[in-house]
Amino acid sequence: MKINSIIGEWIAPSAKVLDLGCGDGELLAWLKSQKKIEARGVELDRESVQKAVARGVTVYQSDIEESLEGYPDKAFDYVILSQTLQEVRHPLTVLSQMMRTGRWAIVAFPNFGHWRVRLSHLVSGRAPRTTLFPYQWYESPNIHFLTVVDFEEMIAQQKWHIEKRRFVSRDQAVGFMPNLLAEVAVYLLTAP
Q1: Which residue among 19, 40, 122, 174 has the highest number of C-beta atoms inside a 10 angstrom radius?
Q2: What average pLDDT does range 38-54 have in this prediction?
Q3: What is the pTM of this model?
Q4: What distance in Å separates the CA atoms of residue 7 and residue 172, rounded to the nearest whole number?
């Protein structure tokens, strides 16, 4: 079960979608072709922006932490942040802006509570390195090491609502003990 497939299932046809940290635009291009969405992306890396534009997706180069303030409330049906939450400096600010600018927010992130990450840290005594987190500590783009439990606790504190959630490990659905067994968590959120 691929993360983009889960996100694609949740997005309605003809929706207005903003993808934050959209990379090379693969997801947006697929959604545009399959779901006929109105696609827009934000990406910091210049080369990725060029690849996204070559795919026919409207993407502009910007830091996502600075780009959301200019959008009016509920400008989009869906705002996506996939595999980027752990890399932003101010995740709560980014999530709050997503909830303000979109009717729904879709957030996918690597679960640092996964047993392989825990075991790697325990056995090696060093910053975890697994196939999901292959970086040396000094090269990692990850600056926040959140777990499923951490995320859901923050959602409850903000009084946001979890519409749907899916957990995945090695492209397989995880239904039991997601904080321990899921490598990636995907959420569909709304604000009251």
Answers
A1: 19
A2: 96
A3: 0.94
A4: 15
